[in-house]
Amino acid sequence: MISDRTHRFYINFLFFTGIIFGAIVSIYLKNTIFSSVVWLILSLILLIFTWIYSRKFCLILALVAGILFSFWRGSIYNFEDLKVAKFINKTEVIRAIVIEDPDLKEDGSSQIRAKVSDISGEKVNMKFFVTFKTSKKIRRSDEVVIKGKISKGFGDFSAAIKRGKLIEVIPKSDFIRDIRDSFAGGIRKFIPSPEVDLGLGYLLGQKNSLPEQLSKALTITALTHIVVASGYNLTVLVMAIQKLFNKISRKITLFGGVLLILGFIFVVGFTPSMTRAGIVAIFGLILWYFGRKSRAYFLLTFVAATTLIFEPSNLLNLGWQLSFASFFGVLIFSPLIQKYFFEKPEKLNSVMSLFFETLSAQIITLPLIIFTFGAVSLISIFANMLVLPFVPAAMLATFLTGIFSLMPFIAKIFGLIAEFILKYSIFIINEFSKFDGAQLEIQSGFNEMLICYFCLILLVIFMSIKVRKNENDTAGALNDADNMI
């Protein structure tokens, strides 16, 4: 009956689903008609109503509330985007804040990701990708004034400036950045390059100082994700703090874990992958503290919706897309494969679990990678299996080297351990990248990518039905056995 009550879990799930659907529609249609705060108020009223009454008909209202919320947020973003669009193909002066560490190229050019606040006197609030040559030192959080021809953007960048001219750099204080750079400087005293560059990539996501040859090798072996601070780094940190403090106090573990996660995000920066990983890690810790198990589909939907509320352009960010595709592979597809092929997947050892997680992540991200890059790594799974197990140890040794940098004798010991592990990682990465045919070039269009993901969805549905049927059959057989006894 329509008056039957429903669990608020489903209301929340549909609300977040509506946000994701609304973001997709809003960003691609570029509508601005929902920019009035009235739509936000209406969305919240609908959500509160569904929470109070919690009837089955409220499920549709929850979905509508999510869509309206996302339309309102997307309209505000699109309004700013249209303000930038009128400057395309014009030479203008922009004022912006550098939001990530600049990428320094061997030809002396710098690439920055910046939040632009002013274009020739007009106030805006959008993200630009800017390339220019300079001998000046530029760091995250610095303000820059640049002149150049504004061209159409790509991904989540509203616009780009190629070969711009740097007019002025205004250094800005960033306490967290300065602590990070000081910490990294202490580590560099005891670990040589390129090992220290890879170690800082593991620990802090600082990939801009990686040698170009090593950076290319990471791309060929599909190991770039290990030097981009994301979920893997936070997983290592959370697991470490759980092992250290779990036996002492769950409250201390929760409090310390949340502080560590937030501190790590502030140090690295609020990139799409880092924001996603932080929300997942904190949410997982809270559920662990209360003894609840998270449902993978809900967690995936919740985190995606939350990140899109804060920044709708994340939908166009390749890192965000790959992050959630791999997230789906690890949390949903990998357990499904294990349950489909093994009667007792919980008894699989850590090596087999890592294999299935790596394989699942690569299967789910494959269509997007082929569409974007026109190439796929054929040896990535083997390189990942040989490198990933040693990343936590390398992170810990690198971290302790920095902690004890004021005590040279101890720092040297940890530095040697870190150097040894990182030398092994670099050896594997370089050797695997040299294999003939390590990368296979494949061209794929947008429609082909959609067909691939449609087939993957059908596969997931089929396997889910089959696994659920097997679990029900097993449960029925056990009940029959109990009745006979």
Description:
- This protein is α+β, with helices and mostly antiparallel strands.
- Helices cover 62% and strands 13% of the residues.
- The chain contains 16 helices and eight strands.
- It has helices spanning 8-29, 37-53, 58-85, 175-188, 195-204, 212-220, 231-245, 250-268, 272-289, 296-310, 318-341, 350-373, 380-387, 391-403, 408-433, 446-484, and strands at 91-98, 103-104, 109-119, 122-133, 143-152, 159-170, 375-377, 439-441.
- The strands form two sheets. It has a five-stranded mixed barrel with strand order 1-3-4-6-5. A two-stranded antiparallel ribbon has the order 7-8.
- The protein is globular and about 65 Å long.
- The relative contact order is 0.08.
- The mean pLDDT is 84.
Question: What descriptors fit this protein?
Answer:
8 strands; five-stranded mixed beta barrel; two-stranded antiparallel ribbon; globular; about 475 residues; about 15% strand; 16 helices; alpha+beta
Helix segment count? 16
Distance between the ends = 40 Å
Silhouette:
globular
Q: How would you spell out the order of helices and strands?
A: HHHEEEEEEHHHHHHHHHEHHHEH
**Secondary-structure-derived class:** alpha+beta
Order of strands across the biggest sheet? 1-3-4-6-5
